[in-house]
Amino acid sequence: MCYTADTEPRAAIEALADGCGVLLAEASGFDADGPIRAHLTAGDAGRLAAKAGAKLLVLTHLRAWQNHLWILEEAAQVAGCPVILANPGLRVAL
Q1: Torsion over CA of 65, 69, 70 and 75, rounded to 10 degrees?
Q2: Which end of the chain has fewer CB atoms < 10 Å from its terminal CB, N or C?
């Protein structure tokens, strides 16, 4: 399992996530918003999951005012694996 928080896309994060089964990644906005300083967009999280070969992407650090289903959709378009939203009490069988 790999967890990202308050980070931008970078080689060090890709190296950390490489080969992880579950990627818990922030999705603080949309690609259309442009790069977000110190945060991943939903598209960034999906691309990271794809590069890592993750088997599951769990999106977290969601902003309350954004449409979370659209966040989920953007990540899922590029992730290459199932994508779900984190929520309190979520349990994932590994």
Answers
A1: 120
A2: C
